[in-house]
Fold these 2 entries.
Entry 1:
Amino acid sequence: MLSDLQKVINRSDKYQEEDFIHAANLLLTHQFIHADRSSHRESYFLVSSHVEYFKNLFAAIGWSFVHQPDEAYLGILPQGNERNLKLKLDESLILLCMRQMYEQKLEKFEIESGKAYTNSDELLMLFETLTGKDIPNETRTKELLALFSRHGLIERGKPDETNPKNVLFSILPTIRQVVVEDYIKQIELLTDPDNARDALNAEEEALLDKEETDVESPLIPQENDSMSQVESSNETA
């Protein structure tokens, strides 16, 4: 790969080796990068103009490369469970709810520049309706939003001026890359409270009944994610 990089650099009069290293590290840190974010923009255009190199680079370590030029984002997805971030139950369910909200707004033509604008109150209302579980408290809700913001799945806005506890945010199209059809099936089961549990198999029902569990997700583990889980465990203890 080093020889391939040198060949690419020799053909480029705009980028240097450190630019490619920075772009690769940005992908590893954020998983998804977006052209409309000032901190991502330069790396986005570097990667998008050298797609084959980065596709081969991440394929060499067993990861798939995603490029959606129409929606101006690109990213990487881990292959193999050992590289996946294990989500707690509430994290997994919130992720499912975000995908549900994105699809609902897409059907209603309420998507703007690929983004579904919403807020934490709407998210928690859907969470309670779909799962029948107690909603996360304010601190935990902020932790959840921070987690998915780090992975480039949402973009947080400012708190609602009339209700500071209600955090405005937008769900990005990258949500469709990580919440796959198996997850959507679980959401559809949860939306029918009368028949949901009859439709669940024993393993799925056990998963929903557990307060704490690890759910495999196509997200890359990050240092901040690990620290958050350690802090959460310490608080529980």
Entry 2:
Amino acid sequence: MEKKLKATLKLLGELGFNELYYFGNTDNRDLQMENNKKHSIQKESPQNLPKEENLVVLQLKRLYEKNRDCCRCDLCKSRTQIVFYDGDPHSGVVFVGEAPGEEEDKQGKPFVGRAGQYLNKVLEKIGWNRKDIYITNVCKCRPPGNRKPLPKEMQTCLNVFLKNEIKIVKPKVICCLGATAAEAFLGKAVRITKMRGKFYVNPLFPNVKLFLTYHPAYILRNMREAKTFEEDLKILKEFVEKASE
């Protein structure tokens, strides 16, 4: 009887009957309950959700909601809010910076201050839309005075947020903007001037390449490196485009 009931419900679902109402006696109420359960599951499945509400986005939302009040390190004492991600969760590339600055802390979005605006201009110049990349930081809370995050702060946020973000987004490559972001993945000191512009094996995610370049804030202080930064991003863009073919 149970097998026949499930087969019947499956057939009706395929025919487009998503709701059944029973008007007989209560002895057969299980039919209605089973169908309601099936209908509820169907409504929440990714293919029935709007594009912006698909599984990847939902997983990121759940990650944020679960940890939006995180106080696992002392950075929570001075932050305005946690700064999560911006851009396209379906992108083949994840840009990772160090930590939010003052403007990011106010707006709740990464790379919206001077450094972010400069990055946007460079991306636009090489034909890359900011909306087509996924961008975030190692640390989600602004360190006091914009100091470099401490190793414990970086490791905590890496475990709570960033590793899970990468597992959800599944990029082809991670672009580390600056030495601090690179150190979070490589687990060692990085001389960005010597290591930038190249791809590296990713110890944390062996199937995801690491690409190192300058942080845009560094370029604003050292404009002689602007062309180098632009060329680095061109190399990265070409890699992402080929990987997406």
